[in-house]
Specification:
By secondary structure, the protein is mostly beta strands. The protein is 12% helix and 34% strand. It has a domain of 68 residues: Roll (SH3 type barrels), CATH 2.30.30. It is built from two helices and seven strands. Strand 5 and strand 6 form a beta hairpin. It starts with a helix and ends with a strand.
Length: 114
Amino acid sequence: MLWVIYQQIDGPRLLRSLGALPAPTAAPIAFDADPTPTPPVRRATITGLNGGPGWLHVTASFDSPTRAIQLADGMQVTLREQQQVDANNIRWQLVEAGGYEGWCPEANLAMPQR
């Protein structure tokens, strides 16, 4: 019964005029908005090393220093969204493997289909 009376006398407006309720905001806050989707993780497989070791390079060049992780055929790496072509027209892909990030020639990567 009290709720009916509260509604009949426009309780919220009355309480706001007395300062007991804050004024309504101009726009409601949307709590159900979806966050920006995270792009899917893309992976590739190391290939073409013919049993020998491969190395991640600091820059996209065979002359650059290497990272402390040894690559092997069949190893999975995570692709980063960066590619480069060196002075010898060799295409390189930035990848992450075993906590290290570095450059790998695309010829040594079995790339997933987009």
